Amino acid sequence: MLDVRRMQVLHAVVTSGSVTAAAASLGYTPSAVSQQVAALEKQAGTALLERVGRGVRPTEAGRLLTEHAAVIGRQVSEAEAALADLRAGRAGRLAVRYFATSGATLMAPALGRFRRAHPGVRVDLKMTDPQDPLPEVTQGRADLAIVVRPHGLVHEGVHLVHLLDDPYRAVLPKGHRLAAKRVLDLTDLADEPWVGSERPSPCVDALLDGCAAAGFSPGFVVESEDYATAQGFVAAGLGISLIPDMGLANRHPAVVVRRVREPEPIRAIHAAVRETSLGRPALRGLLAALRDAAAR
Fold it and tell me: Using an 8 Å Cβ cutoff, are 277 and 152 in contact?
């Protein structure tokens, strides 16, 4: 196998015209350059240089290897430049996963800011509803995911960055007996028929934990797969629902929304990244953009 470093030495000799000039440009001794060329000739099985007066010129085989050495040199320079861009966060790719209601509120403004600061980084964005996106991160299929997890929860190898707390609101049909109250105790809803607004997920766990803290378990009579459909069922008088504030961007005209207390269920929204990825500048830039979007 030909030694690439020795090919670069041969390239220096051919382009400079002499062993002495090549040694000066490389910072080697002439003897070291001659030894490198001799070793390459042994690998190639043929002579690569011939003497001409006080200088040298390449043989046909020497010209061939010199041309390939030039190509390799350019490729190495390009690789070094690409690596520098990647390490500085100017290039690369980020795989990002999110759930539906985090899209408009968090992901869209964060990506807008991120792309202005990192135009050379490609973002592979995918919505994972109804699945929990955390396994995408833990299994290496995603670099970052927006997840719902209780405060203080630890996942081995995963760093959770808290973005915001999204409180649940009571959604009632207009004319409901509780609609006149501006704030409801969670126990006010204990005996109501409930409309489920989410499939089993960490979001549902946050809701059920709040109800359990208030001393009851909700009686679901209708299940839906999204918040818009749940509001439609509520508007039709089939029951009440608890929906996170981020899920109420588009409110049904026939429902009323009220705050809930004692307790106020919340879903804690985090950005999840692998601990081994925290040093990547592009990923740090996206985390900063998400924190900024959450603060706004």
Answer: no
Alpha helices by DSSP H, listed for 27-149, are: 30-44, 60-88, 100-102, 108-117, 134-138
> Of 183, 181, 178, 147, which Cα lies nearest the Cα of 162?
147
Give Cα separations from 154 to 57, 158, 161, 265 (angstroms): 66, 8, 11, 21
Summarize pLDDT for 275-289 with one digit per residue, the tens: 998 888 999 999 999
Q: Do 92-163+269-295 and 164-267 fold alike per CATH?
A: yes
Hey, what CATH topology would domain 92-163+269-295 get? Answer: D-Maltodextrin-Binding Protein; domain 2 (3.40.190)
pLDDT digit string, tens, across residues 51-63:
888 788 888 988 9
Beta strands at 266-274 and 183-185: parallel, antiparallel or unpaired:
unpaired
Cis ω on the peptide bond leading into residue 133 (within 30° of 0)?
Answer: no
164-267 architecture in CATH? 3-Layer(aba) Sandwich (3.40)
pTM recorded for the entire structure: 0.74
Q: Strand pairing of 158-173 and 266-274?
A: antiparallel
